[in-house]
């Protein structure tokens, strides 16, 4: 698959061949959906917890005698039936993460990249570089390219000035290539890859 290369300023800078084994697959929604579910489950804190009857500080004395009152039989004021009692079967601190095979995760990333390529939503830059860390000038460059909602993926090392200029622009994310993931690719309309990012992805999936 051949795609044109443009600079950050929107100027033509040649073309590049994308590997069909990574960018030319027929996207499978089931794989992508499983990967998104895996990512969202893994990042959940799981710190929700309520007080059970064993956690309530209250007397354990029997409320009243077993027989003769005409009322229901009760032995503890900590039970969930009473106001201030413990909650039955409440949430506990736990991990929501579940397993997903490594090969399936890699395949889901390929399918997410292929989905963006199929939609024509991939832009290739020679590099993510700006001379000055000025958000205003970078935002103007993005306006020329029509970038309003994008994920920008650079090589292993991000350029500090570019990150500083881009970090206050809403709906623009910048990641190193080792941080690329299915969820962030899908949540942005456009995927911007540098040549270094493409080389790293092709080397990763060889």
Brief summary of the model shown:
The protein is α/β, with parallel strands linked by helices and 206 residues long. 33% of the residues lie in helices and 15% in strands.
What is the CATH C level class of the largest domain, in words? Alpha Beta
Helix content: 25-40%
Compute the number of helices.
7
Quaternary state reads: single chain
CATH structural fold name of the largest domain: Ribosomal Protein L4, Chain: A
Q: Work out the number of β strands.
A: 6
Q: Order of strands across the biggest sheet?
A: 3-6-4-5
Which structural class do you get from the secondary structure elements?
A: alpha/beta
Spell the H/E element sequence.
Answer: EEHHHEHEHEHEH
General description of the model:
- The strands form two sheets. A four-stranded parallel β-sheet has the order 3-6-4-5. Strands 1-2 form a two-stranded antiparallel ribbon.
- It is α/β, with parallel strands linked by helices.
- Helices cover 33% and strands 15% of the residues.
- It is built from seven helices and six strands.
- It folds into two domains: 2-45 and 99-204, 3-Layer(aba) Sandwich (Ribosomal Protein L4, Chain: A); 50-90, no CATH class.
- The mean pLDDT is 93.
